[in-house]
Amino acid sequence: MARVRCKVLETMFSVRRAPSLSAIKRSVLMLLSGQQLLIASDAPQKTSKLLWYYDWATIGDAIMDLSQRFLIDPRISIDLCMPHGPIELFVDDDRFRRVSRSLDDCDARYDMVIVQSLTTRTIFKKLQYHPFTPWLSIMAHRKDERFSRIQLAYEQIARVFSTCGPGPVEPALRLPHRPLPSQRFSIAVAVGGGDKRRRYENWAQLIWLISSNWPEHMPAPRFVLIGTGDTALDTVKTVCAQPDCGEVEPHIDLPTITAAAGLIQQSSFFIGADGGLMHIAAALRKPGVAIFCDIKPEWRLHSNSKMRPVFSEHDINAIAPERVAAAVVEYCRELTQTATSALPTPQRAQQNGWSVEATLFE
């Protein structure tokens, strides 16, 4: 009991790390340029037009960091400028009035500017295009990844825009209209990955285990493999060489991220490691199983997410494929039972051409 109390006190009174030399230099730059005085604690009164300058490039971070845009008063129009990131995912967004790659394509005047973090490049961009406009930085000088980006964005937006609510808005994406999925149950599988810490290597055995343990009363699933690069291609070859893996449909090195998102949208279920495609699936409200390592799932998933995590503290490949397969099969069984109980009587279903697979994930 005493050890637990000491741990709690240590957490409560832990000393923050000293700022880095680069952070100190940026702070001096902001002071000398007058930008520090423009950091807003509250949104300016009668704010009607806002610029969100987002210069991070990663898919998952963009989905999480921009998720709280729906907290802002809908009477305030928001323009998104994203020089490097997955801007295609936000072209048809309900909340952004306009999306662009360059500040040259944005308006000359805004009531407020939001940036993700305070980098030297961002500060100079602010000085060049909007030197006298109040602004907010979501992360300020923070660079680590051991925190909830969704929660931080919520706290910052709620504080500055005086928004009251029960908690963070769940990340959401709106993609261009896609045809409805076929009646065949399909599982989107994100393979490969650029970050070695999050690159799961046991896909062939995992898919074989899912196929082997799939409930007999449910039609066998189709596995839609999505990824980029040589690692993803090698994974597809290994999976296809594995006997009794069922139907496998590879989609490697797709031309755009929206093409991959469209395949996920049309699928019934998702499996993948913590990464961009997993965040797309979660934002599309797809049920699935996400494999996490080192980064805690609660730091990346909203509490209402339909994604169920499987977690390892150190090595992602220490997670046994049997453990992941059991989680997938059990979740799919639950979803099928829920969909079956929601169906009309068999006679009415037959008359109307309904099936369990067709109504599972409408």
Describe this structure in words.
There is one protein chain. The chain has 362 residues and is of the alpha/beta class. It has 2 domains: 23-160, Rossmann fold; 186-359, Rossmann fold. The protein has 12 helices and 11 strands. It has a 6-stranded parallel β-sheet, with helices on both faces. It is elongated.
Contiguous runs where pLDDT drops below 50 for at least 5 residues: 1-15, 347-362
Roughly how many Å is the radius of gyration? 23 Å
Strand count: 11
Oligomeric nature of the chains: single chain
Structural class: alpha/beta
Q: What would you give as the CATH superfamily of the largest domain?
A: Glycogen Phosphorylase B
Question: CATH architecture of the largest domain, please?
Answer: 3-Layer(aba) Sandwich
**The CATH class of the largest domain:** Alpha Beta
Helix content class: 25-40%
Quick description:
The chain has 12 helices and 11 strands. It is α/β, with parallel strands linked by helices and 362 residues long.
List keywords for this structure.
single chain; 362 residues; Rossmann fold; 6-stranded parallel beta sheet; 5-stranded parallel beta sheet; elongated; disordered N terminus; disordered C terminus; Glyco_trans_9
Layout of strands and helices, then pairs:
Layout: H1 2-12, H2 21-33, E1 49-53, H3 59-65, E2 77-81, E3 96-100, E4 112-115, H4 120-129, E5 135-137, H5 149-160, E6 186-190, H6 203-212, E7 222-227, H7 229-241, E8 247-252, H8 257-266, E9 269-273, H9 276-283, E10 288-293, E11 307-312, H10 321-342, H11 346-352, H12 356-359
Parallel strand pairs: 1-2, 1-4, 2-3, 4-5, 6-7, 6-9, 7-8, 9-10, 10-11
Helix pairs in contact: 3-9, 6-7, 6-10
